[in-house]
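User: quick one - fold this with 5-O-phosphono-beta-D-ribofuranosylamine bound?
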Amino acid sequence: MAKLKLGVLGSGSGSNMQSIVDAIEAGELDATVEIVLADVPEAKILDRARKHGIKAQFLDCSPWKTKLADAAEDECIRILKENACDTVVLAGFMRIVKPKLLAAFPNRVLNIHPALLPAFPGVHSWTQALDYGCKVAGVTVHFVDAGTDSGPIIVQRTVPVMEDDTPETLHARIQVEEHIAYPEALRLLAAGRLRIEGRRVRIGQ
Ligand code: GRF
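Assistant: Sure. Structure tokens for the protein plus 5-O-phosphono-beta-D-ribofuranosylamine:
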């Protein structure tokens, strides 16, 4: 299979992007990160990328706070294509991507969500799980569709919810699993082992 050429979109710390870069540098993932885009100019994800010699730039998405405006979406697609990306990795990107971007990369946009979907889509899902009284929580890597955190599931990993958990301690435990789950999902994609059948993602040998 051809090496994946990843374009990463983020808004924050970039620890998931870091786990992907670490897997690539360890020879555990056949991919390159071609570019990292962040909608927050001072996002740590940009610094992390630059430390690894990865091209990283701010994508101006104003005036909206949660969606990708048409002009920003066009610009995003243009930059990703210009950098020869074939797969888009949403890694803590706090905006809903729209059908145009999805159509530009069919079945090639992935997201990581810190909950066991379909439970707790949206923001602060670890707090939602804690408040609900869940005994297990976890993380989901999925293909992105036009809904919110609703696309076909590729990988899920679970963590226990402890008696003394706070939102912060639970999120930290989930993040440990995130950093395993995203490289794992991308490894499966890179190996050509994922086949989407309706809602199900079949994992072949
Ligand atoms: C993670 O919890 C991820 O699941 C969610 O946003 C957070 C991003 O963290 N979508 P990071 O920027 O990768 O450290």
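One thing worth noting: Strands lie at 4-10, 31-38, 56-58, 87-90, 109-113, 136-143, 153-160, 194-197, 200-203.
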